[in-house]
């Protein structure tokens, strides 16, 4: 079973508006609030099957060299991520990168494995799971295709 990461542009835009609103009003975020940075985007996975999932592997493809960090969030239902708190970000994160000239995407295998297994567990109580993708080294969302295989 392969479940794709779907870019949630509406939630990303909503979180960016929160950031702009705070700047315009010259107010500080709530204590521990996670504000979306320009290189961060919200993605989701819709679980069409919730039970008997066993994590097999990640399928992350990058069109060019760069790095992406995938962080899960602990919201249980459709979240209002505009007030996402740092304590709602899950550990470990999945870090995937592609070196210049390389064909294959690399990752920290142990963290990626643990993260994948945790997602399989969380799927039992969720129909949807939200993630923050952080792009670095010039990488952008259009240059990524990703999914989780159970």
From TrEMBL:
It comes from the Eukaryota. GO terms for biological process: sensory perception of smell; signal transduction. This is OMP protein. The gene is Omp.
């Amino acid at each position: 079973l392969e479940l794709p990461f779907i870019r949630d542009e509406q939630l990303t835009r909503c979180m960016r508006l929160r950031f702009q609103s705070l700047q315009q009003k010259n107010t500080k975020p709530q204590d521990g609030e996670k504000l979306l940075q320009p290189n961060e985007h919200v993605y989701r996975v819709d679980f069409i099957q919730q039970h008997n999932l066993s994590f097999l592997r990640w399928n992350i493809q990058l069109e060019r060299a760069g790095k992406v960090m995938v962080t899960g969030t602990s919201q249980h239902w459709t979240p209002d991520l505009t007030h996402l708190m740092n304590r709602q970000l899950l550990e470990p994160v999945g870090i995937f990168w592609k070196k210049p000239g390389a064909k294959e995407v690399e990752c920290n295998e142990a963290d990626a494995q643990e993260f994948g297994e945790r997602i399989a567990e969380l799927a039992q109580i969720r129909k949807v799971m939200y993630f923050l993708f952080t792009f670095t080294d010039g990488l952008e969302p259009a240059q990524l295709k990703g999914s989780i295989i159970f």
